Amino acid sequence: MVKLTEQNREQYAESILQALNSEELQQFRQLFLELHPQDQHDFFLELEESQREKVYEYLSPEEFAEIFQELELEEQKDIIEELDQTYAQDMFGEMSTDDVADFLGEVPESKAETVLEGLEDDDAKDIRELLSYEEETAGAIMTKEFMNIPADAALRDVIELLRQEGPDAETIYYLYVVNAKQELAGVVSLRDLITSDPNKKVEEVMSTRVVSVNTGDDQEDVANLIKKYDFLAVPVVTTNNTLVGIITVDDIIDVIEEEATEDIGEFVASRGATDVNLTSFTAAKKRAPWIIMLMFFGLITAGVIGQFEETLERIVLLAVFIPLIMDSAGNTGTQSLAVMVRSLATGTFEKKGMFNTVRREFGTGLFLGLFCAITLMILIPIVYRDVMLAFIVGLSLFLTLSIATIVGAVVPVLINKLKLDPAIASGPFITTINDVLGLMIYFSIATALLQYL
Amino acid sequence: MVKLTEQNREQYAESILQALNSEELQQFRQLFLELHPQDQHDFFLELEESQREKVYEYLSPEEFAEIFQELELEEQKDIIEELDQTYAQDMFGEMSTDDVADFLGEVPESKAETVLEGLEDDDAKDIRELLSYEEETAGAIMTKEFMNIPADAALRDVIELLRQEGPDAETIYYLYVVNAKQELAGVVSLRDLITSDPNKKVEEVMSTRVVSVNTGDDQEDVANLIKKYDFLAVPVVTTNNTLVGIITVDDIIDVIEEEATEDIGEFVASRGATDVNLTSFTAAKKRAPWIIMLMFFGLITAGVIGQFEETLERIVLLAVFIPLIMDSAGNTGTQSLAVMVRSLATGTFEKKGMFNTVRREFGTGLFLGLFCAITLMILIPIVYRDVMLAFIVGLSLFLTLSIATIVGAVVPVLINKLKLDPAIASGPFITTINDVLGLMIYFSIATALLQYL
């Protein structure tokens, strides 16, 4: 029994490599094809170009398709250059249509067209359909490899059908039932199928309470639905309820990862740049717009301090607390932002309602401001021997933190109401607003109380 | 066909509510029990206490168990107070053992003990076992409701067994095969089961290449495994390969959500505080340690500026660029951090290797520094009519950003090597290091070039 533990895996990979290098075709195929496609993919990625050439020679297009569909998009683009055109075309013919569509969506249209023309008509039609949906919608992420069964079939016949066609479908754990007009009419789980009398008809055992999504639905909403009901798959229908595809739970896991990475990317202002596969220059080009935009925000903050140059000239010590005010305002605001973004993303927000959540955040800000102000009013007199300074910094911080939580909580909700992605109100954006507010409060109080300093 | 669209759902809920309020027991039960447990839960959450009391009366403990296990932990604690003790005990007897364990892990031990003593011996034993594993490990999140089948059984008999016991198991889509010593020997998917000749034996069709996890494995590693291989479930074994539980994909989705929320929480320094169910004061208490710790960091940064008070006194205008230096250093560092944390979490980091990734980040920092320095050397002379100031700020920013990316990339890797959670190197921590470095570079250069200003 080949158990894929850390140690065995390396040893096993060593044997395959040896077979490959010494050109023992049979030995290589036997060992390699025994692996899970994902492990085949891991092994393949470690190879040099000359070794990869041998793999293309030793594996049929159908076998190589398994590896190709596990590759990242950037890797696929590199590998396709190494493949013979006929081999590549045969490989596309063996891949799941949704995987082909993902790839073709990223290459120049003329190239995609060539590939499409070489495919069977049915597959080409499915892929064109998938490509026609907007990115990140249910239609774009669904698969066309699903089985639908007529409502009036006998269970016995369905099981026979599964025996024949099952291996090609993405999942056979849920079978979607359609009526004569190809409209979604119900669902039968494989579980129900085998635990029921085989002589019954599908419509007798199917559940008509089938939850479906629309082709245009956002992928994040689909993810929340699958998560909520613990589904293994969900059917995708058009506006007139025609069944056109399914989305399986493994695709949804990728969506959840992707959305979480996106959320984090937006917190740190690097949308699309948290990809470790890019070169330094490409990564810099992707991140630079954010950093430069935020630098402009920094110039705005600079302008705010510039307004108080006179005050600063009289008491230079005030400059020392600029970082403290900025950091505290920024951190408090992004905490509130994180709470809101996550509760909007995971759907808990709807349960509690906007008003309650914002009020909760404001209350939290008041308490946080109070805790921090008290700490500072004890610390600053000890370190800087200046009670008035402690009072100014403490009061500023109290006011700033109370407001910072509201900014952090309200901005993403407003942006959500305007149907924009809540995470556009990214951390740095909220932080800048709070920096400016905090420093204005701080220097205004300091200027007003200047005579007592 | 009751289709749960947004509109129908409300209308349906209205009918159930009416039946409940007018005490039409039969009508209520018929409508309510037709709903998916998750929808029953949503409906139940909207009720007043007096209405909830009626629900307890109208539903059997078994029926109510379905709702109870969907509740959040905090909600469970509130609801349990409203239940009659015998009713509650019967309900626990009907719940999945892993759900009971999750609940009992959060209540005082004496209370948990009372519940455990009232349960059947088998269930109590399972729950005690689940409670004995460390939090966030495979053992703690696995379920004991799984079916294992002997290797020498005939497929025909297995299908018969499924007909009888299937409805109680968490998943029957994978059946794990054990030998006489209860050791994990293989796996048969339901798909294989129904597409094979029923007269064959399990060991003839089972796959022996079964990937399993250990009870002590981190839940994040389990999630990555399930994600990698697109599994619907994974078996959990002890160190001597005895099968003790399974983890299903729906639990893993919760883990992925949880870990993503945790990652984000750590980016914004609010571990455990991104929970919208807390009161203001509790939320403030949870977040305050972070904010106050970061405030202390702010005092350190203040100390750095304090060192250059003389320089500042001569050129107050230097204070104006403090936010710009801080923000740019902080933002660049957290971008690098985000790349590292996500690639550590999703496992892409291992593919690329530490050295390559850090070198990539350093290169990115050089380019970013260059872009920003050029922008500033054009802008500052226009706005502040001071070329020397532009040079100082530009050069400082170039050096700071180059270093900031390294700090952002290396710190999480070091922390990971030390087997700590990489996200402890949270955004604010990295930001503070970069703030201090950036301001020291800035004021050092300014002090050195003071005579030219």
TrEMBL record, chains A, B:
Belongs to the SLC41A transporter family. Keywords: CBS domain, Cell membrane, Magnesium, Membrane, Metal-binding, Transmembrane, Transmembrane helix, Transport. Acts as a magnesium transporter. This is Magnesium transporter MgtE. GO terms for cellular component: plasma membrane. Residues 142-204, 206-262 form the CBS domain. GO terms for molecular function: magnesium ion transmembrane transporter activity; metal ion binding. It is found in: Cell membrane; Membrane. It comes from Alteribacter lacisalsi. It comes from the Bacteria. It is a multi-pass membrane protein. It holds the Pfam family MgtE_N. The chain crosses the membrane at residues 290-308, 314-341, 362-384, 390-415, 427-450. Homodimer. The lineage of its organism: Bacteria, Bacillati, Bacillota, Bacilli, Bacillales.
